[in-house]
Design brief:
The protein has helices at 36-47, 143-153, 165-173, 178-189, 193-201, 205-230, and strands spanning 13-18, 28-33, 60-64, 83-94, 100-116, 126-131. The chain is of the alpha+beta class. It folds into two domains: 2-131, Archaeosine Trna-guanine Transglycosylase, Chain: A, domain 4, CATH 2.30.130.40; 143-230, no CATH class. Strands 1-3-4-5-6 form a five-stranded mixed barrel.
Length: 240
């Protein structure tokens, strides 16, 4: 899907800020728009597709707030962190109370250059963005790193994790780009909001893949230690 959709960065893009990162490129997540300004944002974005397919709706930049503890780059007031994921609506359900339930698919990393505050009837903010990913947005293949991931998820206690079954299936099929697989792993494995944000802001696909490998290794070691503690002690053998 990502290779067939192009984001027009020459136009301002609506900002939908949340407290934490909810979507990376090549991943999808359901959210609910309930504040009046974000209900208006969704309706304006949907209006842009007219009678065409839903993917023709205007993109949305999923941003995150820069809280008091945040010491990195920030922009606007209330301040936002500068890295965003530009997403498209791939499914939408209007709820009886006026809220919108959205399935968002991430397409591109970007950074906020300039924010346009609400004006006139528009209740939400717009931003001028610069793409961080390659211009065509196509996910990359990294055979060496993919082989390392395949080895980790196919042995030991990681093999028992059903959550990793899709990853094993994508690798086995051999027709899914490594970067797609890495982004799914990042959503599953990244621990804490700051870590998730740093991975969103990270421009290097190889660096992100190395982080995914590191987290898989950490998880494998954690599961191994837990299994050793849980194993019944044999005669003359202590489980401690």
């Amino acid at each position: 899907m990502a290779s067939s959709v192009q984001i027009d960065f020459s136009r301002p893009i609506a900002l939908f800020p949340l407290p934490s990162v909810v979507v990376y490129p090549h991943t999808a997540e359901w959210i609910v728009a309930f504040e009046p300004r974000y209900r208006q944002l969704v309706e304006d974005c949907l209006r842009a597709h007219g009678d065409g397919p839903l993917l023709d709706a205007a993109p949305i930049a999923m941003a995150t707030y820069a809280g008091r503890a945040w010491s990195g780059e920030r922009i606007g007031e209330p301040p936002l962190r500068t890295a965003v994921c530009v997403a498209k609506i791939v499914d939408q359900r209007s709820l009886p109370d006026g809220r919108h339930q959205l399935l968002l698919h991430g397409f591109s990393r970007a950074r906020i250059d300039v924010i346009a505050e609400p004006e006139g009837r528009r209740l939400y903010r717009l931003a001028r963005l610069s793409p961080v990913d390659r211009k065509n947005g196509a996910p990359r293949w990294m055979p060496g790193l993919e082989a390392e991931i395949a080895t980790l998820v196919s042995r030991g206690n990681l093999l028992r994790m059903q959550q990793l079954d899709p990853v094993r299936d994508w690798i086995r099929r051999g027709n899914v780009p490594t970067e797609f697989i890495v982004e799914q792993l990042l959503m599953m494995l990244s621990r804490g909001d700051d870590a998730r944000y740093q991975l969103l802001a990270e421009p290097s696909g190889r660096t992100r893949a190395r982080f995914a490998l590191s987290e898989l290794t950490y998880l494998a070691n954690l599961l191994d230690r837990a299994a050793e503690r849980a194993a019944p002690a044999g005669r003359g053998i202590s489980a401690n």
